[in-house]
Every structure is written in structure tokens, then in C-alpha cells.
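Tutorial handout. Part one gives the primary structure; part two gives the three-dimensional structure as C-alpha cells.
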Amino acid sequence: MTSKLKVNIIADGGDNAIMTSNGSGTLTLNNAALKNTPAFHMYATASTSVNSGAVTKIALGGSYIDTDSGVDTSNSKYTVPSGKGGKYLIGAEICFNGNANDVHLGIYVNGSHSYDSLNWWIEYGDSLQGASRSTLIDLAAGDYIELYTLTGTNVSINSDTSRTKLFGYRLIGV
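Part two.
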């Protein structure tokens, strides 16, 4: 024999809906504490020239996701909103037009070099190469992150919106 519990709403003691169901299996979390937010996803909309040996900030002029208004595409950075500090999973990927060597992909926190990867290659074919990385970062409200690169070759960053990006979200339960 099996048991079933059927409800459309799970509410707290103040009768605030924590979770609702539409009756067809779709659940909606109504409590912000249960969501991995804030979340953001920024991407390149134009090519960035990278000179060999020069640390270069990647221009990220577009955004797919910005749940808490932390994205600033005019300055290519994400700023942690007030009250939203914590552990964040941050990921980045860059794609080069042509062949690059000695590639460093840097995630900068508050203008300082903090997290780096070296030669994490992705082969796109058609003479495109790239690098990617992800990391956990403790961020406080007001902290900001940016994406930089350093290469041993003069190259340009591909402006394909699916290939050069900076993204992340706050983790819950940690």
C-alpha cells in the first residue's frame, strides 16, 4: 500500500505560501531563501582586442539573466546587491578568434586579480579557441567581479554571445 499527500500550497505559520503547485506537477518556490539567487549571466556583444602580454578586461555588453539588478553592462561588471552576500559559484568562458597561446583567464574581485586559470582549452573548430573556469567565491554586498585575460599572442575575443561570458549565482544552504 502506498501513501500520498496531496496539496496545492505549502504555507508557513503566518499563512505565507512557501511553495505552490499548479496541479500538473509544476512547483513554484515563493520563498527567496529557497532560490539560488541572485543569479546573473553576462556575455560579449563586441570583439575585444587583446595584445600579447597585456592584461585586458573583457567587454561584456549584454545580459541574459539579472535577477537582482547587479549587472552593469556599461562597465562589464557584476556587483553583489545589498543583503545578498554569501558563497557564489562563478563561471567564465572566453573564445578567441584565431589561435592563442599561454592563455590566462582571470576573475577579478573588487579590481584585484583573485581567481585565475591557465590554458583551460576549449576547441571550437573553425580556428576558434577558448578557455573556461569556474570557482566558489565568498562575496559581500557591494563586491564586484570582472573578467580579464592575458595571452602570449595578439588575438581578439569572439563576440558570439554564447561563447564569451561571465555568470554565477549565490548558493543556498552553505
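Part three, for discussion. Residues 36-170 form a domain with the Jelly Rolls fold (CATH 2.60.120.40). The chain has no helices and 17 strands.
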